[in-house]
Amino acid sequence: MNGIFQILLYSPRVYSGLDHLMVEVTKQATANGYTNVCVYTDTMEHMPQLQSDIENAGGVVELVRSSNLMQDIWHLYKKYCPVVVDTHFVNKVKLWACIFSLLFGAQHYTHMHSLLGDDIQRYEQHRGRLKRMLLGVYYWFLTLCSKNVFCISQAIKDQYLIWSFGRCKNFLTLYIGTQLVAPKYTQEEARKILQLPHDRTIITNISAIEHIKGIDTILQALALLRQREIEVVFAHIGGLRSNTLEQQKYADSLKQLAVELGVEDNVVWLGRRSDVQDILPMADVYVHPSRSEGLGSVLLEASVAGLPLVGSRVGGIPEIVQHQLNGLLVEADNAEQLADAIEQVLTLKNNYGEWARKMVYQHFDQMKQARKLLNLYNITENN
């Protein structure tokens, strides 16, 4: 078997941009005589459709136990003898996978999906210079073992280059992209399905309910807009990343904040949904005020729906949101700037949404990104 390993190591709860990419990579790998093996952890019970899509495309889904990762992954190497291995996200398994790939003679690649962010600060503030240097050695070793390191945004690439002492020349920016499929529903149809008011201005945000996503900033901006006699409904899509007590408390604190700001009647919590791409036309503006973000691939989905974008000037977001072309950029943690940007987009009635759609079609086609990835694996129609 000509096996490609995608070592993902998470239990999918929503159909993410990365998951869509894995399905597209599987289709194209199968067409070229390779089997894409997607390695997740523990269970696929929340996303059986993803497993079905990968298998129907000619791929394989393997589950490893989070309590026994090393041994289970070693058995998979022996079972498939992969010719290409791509590890995703930062964890200790990357180091072992590098070693296993060397032992099996597999071409090894690494994907970086997020900024170092708070981890860097913790190392600098609490672990000292020695641990910071060890962290840099860790990234240097990963790149030494990897033919290429794929970063899903230029911002991530720039940061990792710094943290690997600038010695790593095999870093490449490779966007995940998004499916270029027009939404099924019109604005009127989507609002009817979601039981949202048909005659109100609606902004939306798709994110996990956690502090880093800046949902509290959106609530504060809503209150400021109300003071200006601009009534806006905020429809949030997404749920808790995990059902811990800490995260539940944070979700409750957001609802309490909405009450304190007097905007609770203007907020709708839609929860997780599997039809995000189809219902996005329900909104007039997409807002994404994250405090840190590797790329913000949901901005691409909003762009396909033709929504004007408002995002924070952090991480990879400015690589999607081109200020005053397809949307507006604001500073993170700045509710007043966010309110100003939303008001400006709603008032000017410009063509930001049209430009957003054009740009995503030009630069973020997921089929093209999958083809680029396979070409970098040296898997082409001629192999």
Number of domains: 2
Give the helix/strand class. alpha/beta
Compute the gyration radius: what is it?
21 Å
Largest sheet: 7 strands, parallel
Mean pLDDT: 91
Count of DSSP H/I helices: 14
Q: What is the H/E order? A: EHEHEHEHEHEHEHEHEHEHEHEEHHH
Low-confidence parts: none
- Which architecture of the largest domain per CATH? 3-Layer(aba) Sandwich
Label the overall shape: globular
Looking at CATH, the homologous superfamily of the largest domain is Glycogen Phosphorylase B
User: Biggest sheet: strands side by side, in what order?
Assistant: 3-2-1-4-5-6-7
In CATH terms, what is the fold-level topology of the largest domain? Rossmann fold
Report the helical percentage. Answer: 40-55%
Estimate the strand proportion: 15-25%
- Under the CATH scheme, which class of the largest domain? Alpha Beta
Overall strand count: 13
Straight-line distance between termini: 14 Å
Characterize the structure shown.
- With 383 residues, the chain is α/β, with parallel strands linked by helices.
- It folds into two domains: 187 residues, Glycogen Phosphorylase B (Rossmann fold, 3-Layer(aba) Sandwich); 177 residues, Glycogen Phosphorylase B (Rossmann fold, 3-Layer(aba) Sandwich), CATH 3.40.50.
- The protein is built from 14 helices and 13 strands.
- The strands form two sheets. It has a seven-stranded parallel beta sheet with strand order 3-2-1-4-5-6-7, with helices on both faces. It has a six-stranded parallel beta sheet with strand order 10-9-8-11-12-13, sandwiched between helices.
- Helix 1 crosses helix 14 and helix 3 packs parallel to helix 4.
- It is globular and about 65 Å long.
- The chain starts with a strand and ends in a 7-residue tail after the last helix.
- 43% of the residues are buried.
